[in-house]
């Protein structure tokens, strides 16, 4: 242990003892920002022979017994490291070194199983029902809502599971060891959202170590640690998987995914159905592409949810849009002339002055009177012929218009 860490721990041990009771809330709120203190305490816990281990365990127990929520969370963040140190020491049969760690773990357990009045707690858990929507499903996506409600209400699937009362423990034995540790992990998971990154990394280290130590995977991983196999219970593995599920989406993707594989490996060796079911379900819900393991903050599970309020799209068909479309259609029909389908009847323009320009649209080129006027050197006979052609053209236009108004379909030869 470094001298700097030793000084930080000594200052922390002496500071809390001199604090007045009114200053404890402000002191507890600032503890989470002391990164140097947290790192020094982890080094103390990892050294079972350290002289500071016993006073640190005593101080953390005083934190938890104070009832201040911030102080209790500060103590809980070291729980995975304490459990790992206790299991490593217990497998080596050096029980004399685990006295202070056992006292701390049993003290937290005995405080959590009773309420403020000293009565045994009974924890209740409501099993989710498919009748009520959640972030994972909606009843309408399963089938008919009415049919689903009737079927589920008839079977009464909304059940409440009770846990407890739990007996008090004064000493760890082979029979009650994992019962106590499982309950402590349950308390840790209840405050999981307040845990720092160092605590989640310690949790992943605990999950990997307890799952592969003493098995062939330890040699393949070249994992350094105890070589003895650690006994484990099915309920304890389920609590570990629950913690790893949170760590996956909160900055520890690489470590948590490897730890999850290790826990499933141990569950397969032990043939435990509960952790296999929960672990494989979590593994199946993971995204296809690996998330980046940087510290970008909390990650979320993408779930498709239907909106709670009705929303109308911009392109939705409404009565107003239908009326507007009808008005546009009527305006376009009034400005256009229906042309018979049987033939392409060309309608020449009618000019009041009798001067016609060239019509290129219908494929014919017509001469105007301006061409005759442009030839100023011609005699009066040419002018009279031009006038007669203009009158004949006007009569032809009137005849064509009369044919269209009478509904004649064939654009045959017009008699005039």
Q: Which SSEs are present, and which pair or pack?
A:
Layout: H1 3-17, H2 24-31, H3 35-45, H4 53-65, H5 69-76, H6 79-91, H7 99-112, E1 123-126, H8 139-142, H9 145-155, E2 160-163, H10 177-190, H11 197-212, H12 216-221, H13 234-248, H14 253-270, H15 273-285, H16 319-335, H17 369-374, H18 380-405
Antiparallel strand pairs: 1-2
Describe what this molecule looks like in 3D.
The protein has 416 residues and is an all-alpha fold. 55% of the residues lie in helices and 2% in strands. The protein is built from 18 helices and 2 strands. It has a two-stranded antiparallel ribbon. The longest helix is centred in the C-terminal third of the chain and has 26 residues. The C terminus is likely disordered.
Largest sheet: 2 strands, antiparallel
How many β-strands, per DSSP?
Answer: 2
Quote the beta fraction: under 5%
What ranges have pLDDT less than 50 throughout 5 or more consecutive residues?
A: 337-348, 350-378, 408-416
Global geometry: elongated
Distance between the termini: 122 Å
Radius of gyration: 44 Å
Give the overall pLDDT as a whole number: 75
Series of secondary-structure elements, N-terminal to C-terminal: HHHHHHHEHHEHHHHHHHHH
């Amino acid at each position: 242990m470094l001298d700097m860490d030793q000084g930080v721990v000594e200052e922390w041990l002496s500071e809390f003892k001199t604090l007045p009771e009114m200053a404890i809330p402000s002191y507890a709120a600032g503890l989470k920002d002391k990164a140097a203190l947290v790192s020094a305490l982890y080094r103390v816990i990892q050294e079972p022979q350290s002289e500071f281990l016993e006073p640190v365990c005593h101080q953390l127990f005083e934190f938890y017994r104070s009832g201040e929520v911030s102080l209790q969370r500060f103590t809980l963040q070291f729980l995975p490291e304490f459990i790992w140190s206790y299991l490593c020491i217990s497998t080596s049969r050096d029980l004399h070194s685990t006295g202070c760690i056992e006292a701390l773990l049993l003290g937290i357990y005995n405080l959590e199983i009773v309420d403020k009045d000293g009565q045994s707690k009974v924890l209740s858990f409501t099993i989710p029902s498919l009748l009520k929507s959640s972030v994972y499903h909606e009843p309408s996506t399963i089938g008919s809502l009415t049919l689903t409600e009737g079927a589920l209400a008839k079977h009464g699937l909304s059940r409440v599971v009770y846990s407890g009362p739990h007996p008090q423990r004064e000493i760890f034995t082979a029979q009650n060891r994992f019962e106590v540790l499982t309950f402590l992990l349950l308390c840790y998971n209840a405050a999981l959202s307040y845990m720092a990154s160092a605590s989640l990394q310690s949790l992943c280290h605990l999950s990997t170590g307890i799952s592969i130590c003493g098995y062939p995977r330890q040699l393949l991983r070249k994992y350094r640690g105890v070589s003895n196999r650690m006994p484990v219970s099915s309920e304890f593995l389920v609590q570990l998987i629950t913690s790893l599920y949170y760590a996956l989406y909160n900055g520890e993707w690489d470590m948590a995914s490897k730890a999850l594989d290790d826990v499933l490996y141990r569950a397969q060796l032990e043939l435990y159905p509960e952790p296999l079911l929960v672990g494989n379900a979590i593994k199946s819900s993971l995204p296809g592409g690996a998330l980046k393991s940087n510290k970008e903050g909390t990650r979320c599970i993408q779930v498709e949810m239907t909106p709670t309020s009705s929303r109308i799209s911009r392109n939705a068909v409404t009565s107003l849009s239908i009326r507007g479309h009808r008005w546009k259609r009527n305006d376009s029909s009034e400005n256009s002339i229906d042309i018979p389908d049987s033939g392409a009847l060309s309608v020449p323009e009618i000019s009041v002055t009798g001067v016609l320009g060239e019509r290129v649209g219908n494929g014919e080129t017509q001469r105007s009177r301006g061409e005759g006027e442009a030839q100023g050197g011609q005699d009066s006979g040419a002018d009279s012929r031009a006038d007669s052609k203009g009158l004949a053209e006007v009569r032809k236009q009137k005849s064509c218009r009369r044919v269209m108004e009478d509904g004649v379909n064939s654009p045959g030869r017009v008699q005039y």
